[in-house]
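Dear colleagues,

As part of the handover before I leave the project, I'm documenting each prediction I ran so the next person doesn't have to rerun anything. This entry is a single chain, and its sequence is reproduced below.
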Amino acid sequence: GMGVVYKAEDTKLGERVALKVLAPDIADDPLSLERFRRELTAARRVTHTNVVRVHDLGEADGIAFLTMEFAPGETLKSILGMAGRLEPGTAVDYARQACAGLAEAHRAGIIHRDLKPHNLMIDARHKLRILDFGIARPLAGSGPTRDGALIGTPAYMSPEQAEGRDVDARSDLYSLGLILFEMTTGRLPFEAESDLAMARRRLETAPPSPDSLNPAVPASLNALILRCLARDPADRPASAEALEAELAKIAAEIGPDPAARISIAPSIATSRSRRRIPVWAAAAGAVAAGLGAFFLIRALSQPAFPEGWDSRLVVLPFTDASPDRDKAVLCDGITHDLRDKLAAAGGLKIISEYSSNRYRDSTAGRTKIGRALGARHILQGRLNLHEGALSLEVFLGDAEKDVLAWQMPYGGSEGQYFAIQAQVAADVMERLAGFRAKTVAPTPAAADPSSLEAYTDYLMGRRFEARYRETDAPVDFEEAARLFRAALAHDAGYTLALRGLGDLHEARFAKANDPTDLAVMLENYRNAFETNPALSDSMIAMGWSYFYQQNQEEAARYFGQAREAAPEQVSVLLGIGAYLRSLGLFEKAVGYFERAIERSRETDPLSINPSIQLAICRSGLGQAVEAERRLRLALKVDRNNGRVLILLARQLAAQKRYEEARLELADSGRTAALSPTLRRQHDLLQAWLAAAAGDEAAALRLIRASDRPFSYDAVNAYCLLGRKDEALAAIEDGIKRGFLVSKDYLYGYSFLVHDPLLDILRPEPRFRTILAEQKETEDRLNMICAGL
């Protein structure tokens, strides 16, 4: 939450450093910067082998940054995400090293305040180092770091920290106790819907005994962990030194346990040929290689899984095991490509990227992930690419038995990246042959590019494209465009790069309506379609390209082709539904979104987009109560989604529940960073609510300040104020230029008929004329889309 971290080179010292660019809310606040300077002075006093040292606070061209010692390795969180839990001997070893680092910091008068697996780094020699002492507050201080804000992560806070009380070194020991609990059991002692709810639970509930979740935890270690988790700091170990001394006794009791070590940096296979390893041999080899913790079978009864779960597979984001940890983009790429290749083989339902990525870096065990996503099989991996040599370790878990069922190492040259991908997909399909369902048809996938350079440029282009959609920043657009064009310079027929460039210009066209963007979008969509006309997503893109040209006959034809090619594919159902919704054909769109929700239960259970789209259609049909129900279901998955909160506030306003609407709208601005688009929607809904409260001046001011004074919210505000002429003018304006600005057919017949706030306009001859004209338009569009 503080900023973005880069690996950098200190050109004066000739060594690598970690460089943390501070977030604007910190960097732009002189008081915050001064606080960091004071804390940095204290943090620099901590020099210990188990602590990553903070060097300096600098500033260049208005950008504030911290420089720190660069520590290669992998976070404990990432390790737990792969292993589930660790052998007690390994957990004790890591905790002892953490105690050594904490003891040195505490002697210097500094407490960490945010100790968690995310900032415990483990290197290839299993040495642990604590990160982020640069944000610690001097031990003598008290209260929050910034006014009204607590420092730390709620899931790992001590009770006194969660309550905002003064903390001392024993607060760090509580956090370390939570980490020890997680290392030995694979989970945190308290579970709740949110981190804050979890923090509250630990104030009210005693933690379970670790040995009740893992009988392998020794009694002495079990008792010590529970002492660390005492709610009263006086009942915890007195100091980090005292805790380390007790852990040392337990380590002697357990004895040496070399097989419990996790292999942090897999070695590159000397042979480029694959080795097929039966399960029992893989387990034996893993012990020899130090991978024993991956092969734990938990002796716990597990809850039932949903029907059909055994033909579903989750591909979790692969982790970067390269020495410099600079291959994250290739890890994301191989994760995405394996999903596509496995789906292309048929027989398995692959959980979507959106739902799978919710478990990125998660320490949840296999059973918990499988239950949450409705899938029995979980695929994970680690990629190591160094000096042209590539190695990959792949792990296939069984969520029902909570066991790693299969592991395979792959090795080769950098140029064999795509061949290794294909081999992994083939091996996984072979391994899961007994679970494949004949009813799951293969899904065509895009061809691999001709070079890794094209692929890397494309992946980075997608990253900047995503940033541009969020920020509207021209620099993100230009960088995305440069990267997509660089990919196409390497491979002119690269389908995904053509689509990417088209998508990028579509995003800007939707915002700015520049015909140049439309032309570039159409050219690249057309070229992408021609390189692979069997891809349903390319058909959908062609449909949108004709929609933007308002050639709905051709648009409907391509959307129809996509439906014939993949009638049950969620992306196709959503694409056609969104097309019909944009035309104002809400009744037809509802069927597609309901089917998308039904299919999403199988492959995209955590996605809320289908529910959002369905709610918009229900709202357009005047069904505000049903729209509200759908949005509240979406909020159960993502409570802080600004778009959902604004839409919910709108449905409440439509039901004249104005006070509730104001509360939800206030939450949207408080809990979510609003994009420019959402900020516009927020302010226009404020105008509606101001009109409902009788504040005509405020409502008119907000409408006139908007670049979309013809919006639904503005018209509803005019109607509440009795300003019929302005309401009618806004409707006519929306019909005339709404498509150019919003890329939707505004004020379709269905909306005009069903919006109850328009009742004041119904006697007006001008409104009746509008209604008749829009009925003709809807009838024509229904004829065009009759085949959908």
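The CA atoms of residues 317 and 357 lie 7 Å apart. The first helix runs from residue 24 to 27.

All the best with the project,
I.
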